[in-house]
Amino acid sequence: MVASIQNNLSALQAFSKQMAVSANNVANALSSDFKYTALLSFLLLFASGCATLQPGYETPVVSVTSFKAVPTQSLVPQFQIGLHIVNPNRSPLDLKGVSYTISLEGHKIMTGVANQLPRIAPYGEGDIILNASVDLFSSIGFFTDLIRHQKKNQLSYRLNAKLDAGSLHPLIRVTQKGTLSLSPPIQSQ
Question: Which of 50-54, 67-71, 125-129 has the highest mean pLDDT?
Fold first, then answer.
């Protein structure tokens, strides 16, 4: 019985040594793969970080210049939103696209995108006109409120826009709040 225990103990020790050697080999293999992967990841992050860093880069200034209802032949209201962009940088601003959402009286009723945008010269300015139409199904609450309060002379609006100036620049986000007059303009005679 003692011999059996000694044989089992010897076998167990040999197995332990073999497992330790195998575990060490696996750890070394993983360690070298991990080191290679970590180094490669660091270099990629460093390179992409450097690409977006431009000394002295300032975020372009975007302001809403107009938000007006335009005449339409359909039952769906149409709007034009004017944006003015100022590029305070020494490199041109090549706008790739814009996405926007418009809420009236707290109801999100318009969402859209545009990709035919001008190039803004270095230290230059440019204007964008966005054409938007109301999504009737998502704005039922707005129209219900409008019918209930027919005596309103103005509507509050909120515009959220995101301009994409390409992968080397951060996204430009704009939020504008204001009111729209529902009264017809007074014509001078």
Answer: 125-129
* DSSP string for residues in 38-106: HHHHHHHHHHHHHHH--TT--PPEEEEEEEEEE--SSSS-EEEEEEEEE--SSS-EE--EEEEEEEETT
Q: At 71, list the tokens.
A: 């005449």
Query: Given the structure tokens 């290679």, which residue do they identify?
Result: 36
**144-164 pLDDT per residue, tens:** 887 887 777 888 888 888 989
Strand order in the sheet with 125-133: 61-70, 78-86, 125-133
Distance, CA of 89 to CA of 56 (rounded, Å): 8
Question: CB neighbours of 169 closer than 8 A, spacing ≥ 6?
Answer: 52, 57, 93
134 close to 155: Cβ distance less than 8 angstroms? no
More confident residue, 182 or 27: 182
State the greatest distance between any 2 C-alpha atoms of the chain, in Å, as a whole number.
122
The per-residue pLDDT for 104 is: 82
| Residue 170 φ then ψ, to 5° | -70, 155
* Bridge pairing between strands 125-133 and 154-164: unpaired
| pLDDT value of residue 137 | 76
What letter does residue 124 receive in the DSSP assignment?
-
Question: pTM for this structure?
Answer: 0.57
